Amino acid sequence: MGASAATDAFLEMMAAERGASLNTLQAYGRDLERFGDFLHRKGDAADSCQPDLIRDYLEDLLLEGLSARTQARHLSCLKQYFLFLMGEGLREDNPVAGIDAPKTGKALPKILSIADVDALLVKARAGQGKEAQRLLVLVELLYATGMRVSELVSLKVSQTQRDPRILTVRGKGNKERLVPLSPAAREALEEYLLLRHTFLSTKEAQPGNDPGWLFPSRGASGYLTRHRVGQLLKDLAVSSGVDPAKISPHVLRHAFATHLLDNGADLRSVQKMLGHSDISTTQIYTHVLQERLQRLVQDHHPLSSKLSKPS
């Protein structure tokens, strides 16, 4: 099996057996292409390279300025790839097995205040026309559910119709979870569904041709892209007087989690709604709240060193 065929077979396995998302498959494909180019320059191949060459590759990534987090992702991809090659009988060992990933640390998510979210929603609710209604439901759903933007844009109409109070979200690994909808999100969704058909192409609007996407689009995927949602949110931020650098679909996911915890929500419940398999991933939001409390004390407590300057 050639290198290209092995890569294709690996990606097919990741999709079929591991339920890897399209984004993950594309990232792994790019990583393996980069690694293949490196091996070609070194005159080596995946079925024969040794640990020292893997270390050289990681150093090469470092010299190119890639972050520790990106290097760690490359290493994770290679570990799984070489395990696959072993399983296929193309290697007897895993040259990555004894190599540790660079320490990445955990960057705290960006914080979006409730006032910022309110400003976005007020502006979105004031809009007129079908584009404005679609934008409103995008913002309402992101903030009301904490969905990943990839989960949002790939929603099917059927996922909204089991129970009007609950949205069925299909996340990583094709796992489904149920997330409650706020009254405002339900109302925005109901109004949008009345005009969703106007976003269908002439062909799709014919009986039996509707693909069923909640947010249909004329693009290749058939539904609104993540990039387009990000653009719409940036534009909304500008018109709302909110710094657009602070806004993205993922920041609204962070806002959902931090605002829930800030108002007394249970960490396990937030974990389930976010679709985190490990609660340690959700716990990063408690660090956000702790950091915020520390800043409040430093900025406003009368004994804070910032305020109690000697006269």
UniProtKB/TrEMBL annotation:
Compartment annotation:
Cytoplasm
- Which SUPFAM superfamilies does the record match to this protein? DNA breaking-rejoining enzymes (SSF56349)
Q: Which UniProt keywords apply?
A: Cell cycle, Cell division, Chromosome partition, Cytoplasm, DNA integration, DNA recombination, DNA-binding
PROSITE patterns for the chain = CB, TYR_RECOMBINASE
Ranges of residues in domain Tyr recombinase: 107-298
Q: Which domain of life is it from?
A: Bacteria
**Coiled-coil region list:** none
What does UniProt list as catalytic?
Answer: R148, K172, H250, R253, H276, Y285 (o-(3'-phospho-dna)-tyrosine intermediate)
Identify one Pfam family in the record: Phage_int_SAM_1
The reply to whether Cytoplasm figures as a keyword in the UniProt entry is yes
The entry's family comment says: Belongs to the 'phage' integrase family. XerD subfamily.
Quaternary structure (record): Forms a cyclic heterotetrameric complex composed of two molecules of XerC and two molecules of XerD.
- What biological function has been recorded for the protein in this entry? Site-specific tyrosine recombinase, which acts by catalyzing the cutting and rejoining of the recombining DNA molecules. The XerC-XerD complex is essential to convert dimers of the bacterial chromosome into monomers to permit their segregation at cell division. It also contributes to the segregational stability of plasmids.
Q: What is this protein called?
A: Tyrosine recombinase XerD
